[in-house]
Design goal:
heterodimer, A: alpha/beta, B: mainly alpha, two-stranded antiparallel ribbon, 10 helices, globular, cytoplasm (chain B), metal-binding (chain B), repeat (chain B), calcium ion binding (chain B)
């Protein structure tokens, strides 16, 4: 009996949740089998198996033996197959919707098998709803209001102090305390790794971006200078209050377009050793935490130390990804606060600097690869801006150039022989 | 759905993907929905491939049509599992795969590939990197080799003859996972 109790105590809350979720999925599988139907399984292996063959290889293979014609009507097969493969399963569009889960986590929003739920499972789900919306949500909303309210009031108070060591000290304490209250408001269970690499003054901290919560997660463990556009409404109030206590970088909408101005303000900030490290998300938009997309090179041109940070959320307890084309901010926050918990890991990577002979883009890609490796995310070259915008023509032109080389190249060989 | 030959789990997954592409949430895909896929947008023949999904004169494709077109790319070996002698020629037969490719060339759908159509498709594939004269001679040479009845265009049977030694089944197949 004591041994059994000891084991129970050692399992923490998250393990209990996992057990419940797996049980829920098993019940649904059983229910499905009874009705002789199939359970929808997320495609963790992908819908299709793609062959990573290059254009040149493929075309050479397709050339019929014997005399080599310049153009073959079968060349079209390569583009055709690649095209249809990309319709069925491409690397980009799936990064902008929430990640699919192996087992159901009792949140309606991640369920695809509604008709396989038994009464027992529905009861469990109902209890879950009561707990989440009846107890957790009101508690968390109260905490959130407290946290934000305190942030605005206290930073304004600190702003009254003359600039100096005391003001900085108070500002740090105030920011940390308020962010930690917000962390509680989300029930975020965060594990920080390698804290010896935490960003220092005079540097830039870059991280992968999944949701606005990333800011709260990082800022509750360290003090950063935020960068962003000036907003109206409540956000604007918060921004104006924060900047009284310590220098953050807020841009007017018109200034955002001017890249030189942005770069200058950032470099001025990092040049001043007394100012806090800047927090930047170079992807420029929220990605669903299965991959890291192209880093915009602006922050990497400044020439100071870059502190990479990898943030990985555990999707089983609550999906943190903000699909801004589908849900507004308030809707998103409600989702967050009515999930079970937000569980994530933060890795502080050792600082990196631009090497000799490396340009900003290569440096950005190097940092991105390090973050992707540490967080276990796919490293993609595609631009996160593709969430809303069209892909640039230049990529198509590259494909056309490649194919032309294959065509013309073979004619050169022929003229030589 | 039986005619497409996909398994139940494949259909479910493909439906979920169809749904995620359908931004307008009206149960059908438009050309813009396809063009939103970056890897397809940079494919030189992207527009022609997108066209293949839409029946003559329509700008919406529903899930059934989507599946029928995709069914052309099922590997031929998969047919062994569900042999049904009454179902007629499956969508992914060698002949149907060739017909799919033929239609990529045959822009006006008159069952003949004319010199102009061939030139247009070639121009799509090479962009600005090859001169008009060179492209013209490539087109002429191709038609000369394929055209057996002397009408300066390529019919479907001539197309099939030219490609009889090519492993069409493998080149025009996608491995769908179960």
């Amino acid at each position: 009996m004591p041994g059994y109790c000891a084991v129970l105590l050692q399992l923490n809350l998250l393990d209990y949740f996992s057990f419940c979720f797996q049980w829920a999925t098993l019940r649904m599988e059983r229910g499905a089998k009874e009705k002789n139907q199939h359970l929808y399984k997320p495609y963790s292996n992908g819908i299709i198996a793609k062959e990573p063959v290059s254009l040149e290889q493929e075309i050479q293979e397709m050339r019929r033996g014997g005399a080599e014609p310049e153009f073959d009507m079968s060349d079209i097969f390569y583009f055709c197959r690649r095209g249809v493969e990309s319709i069925v399963d491409d690397e980009v569009t799936k990064r902008f919707t929430a990640e699919e889960l192996e087992s159901w986590n009792l949140l309606t929003r991640s369920n695809y098998n509604f008709h396989h739920i038994s009464t027992r499972l529905t009861a469990l789900w109902g209890v879950g709803v009561l707990i989440r919306y009846g107890i957790l949500l009101p508690l968390r909303v109260t905490l959130a209001f407290t946290g934000v309210g305190l942030l605005v009031v206290l930073t304004s108070v600190v702003g009254l102090f003359p600039n100096g060591r005391i003001k900085n000290y108070l500002s740090d304490k105030v920011h940390l305390m308020c962010y930690r209250i917000c962390v509680r408001a989300l029930t975020a269970i965060i594990t920080y790794h390698d804290s010896e690499n935490k960003p220092k003054n005079g540097g830039i901290c870059v991280a992968n971006h999944t949701s606005p919560i990333d800011v709260i997660i990082l800022a509750s463990d360290g003090c950063y200078a935020m960068v962003g556009q000036v907003h109206g409404g409540l956000m604007g109030v918060i921004q104006r209050a924060m900047v009284k206590a310590c220098p953050h970088i807020w841009f007017e909408r018109s200034e955002v377009k001017d890249r030189h101005l942005v770069a200058k303000r950032l470099s001025d900030h990092v040049a001043d050793e007394s100012k806090l490290p800047i927090l930047i998300f170079p992807e420029g938009t929220c990605i669903n935490n299965t991959s890291v997309m192209m880093f915009k090179k602006g922050s990497f041109e400044i020439g100071c130390k870059v502190y990479p940070v990898a943030i990985k959320y555990d999707p089983r307890f609550g999906d943190a990804f903000w699909n801004s084309s589908k849900f507004g901010m308030v809707n998103y926050l409600l989702h967050m606060m009515s999930s079970w918990a937000i569980v994530c890991s933060v890795w502080y990577l050792p600082p990196m600097s631009r090497m000799e002979g490396e340009d900003a883009v290569q440096f950005a890609n190097r940092v991105k690869a390090a973050i992707a490796r540490k967080g276990g995310l796919a490293d993609l070259l595609w631009d996160g801006g593709l969430k809303r915008g069209k892909v640039k023509e230049v990529f198509k032109e590259e494909q056309q150039k490649l194919y032309s080389k294959v065509l013309v190249g073979s004619s050169e060989d022929r003229s030589r022989s | 759905m039986k005619e497409t030959g996909f398994s139940h789990s494949q259909i479910t997954r493909l439906y979920s993907h169809f749904h995620s592409l359908d931004k307008g949430e009206n149960g059908a895909l438009s050309r813009e929905d396809f063009q939103r896929i970056p890897e397809l947008a940079i494919n030189p023949l992207g527009d022609r491939i997108i066209n293949a999904f839409f029946p003559e004169g329509e700008d919406q494709v529903n899930f059934r049509g989507f599946m029928r077109t995709l069914a052309h790319f099922r590997p031929v070996e998969d047919n062994e599992k569900n042999k049904d002698p009454t179902s007629g020629e499956p969508l992914n037969s060698r002949a149907n795969k060739l017909l799919f490719a033929f239609r990529l060339y045959d822009l006006d759908r008159d069952d003949k590939i004319s010199r102009d159509e061939l030139l247009q498709v070639l121009r799509m594939m090479v962009g600005v990197n090859i001169s008009d004269e060179q492209l013209g001679s490539i087109a002429d040479r191709t038609i000369q080799e394929a055209d057996t009845n002397g009408d300066m265009s390529i019919s479907f049977s001539e197309f099939t003859k030219v490609l009889e030694k090519v492993d069409v089944e493998q080149k025009m197949s996608i491995r769908f996972l179960h």
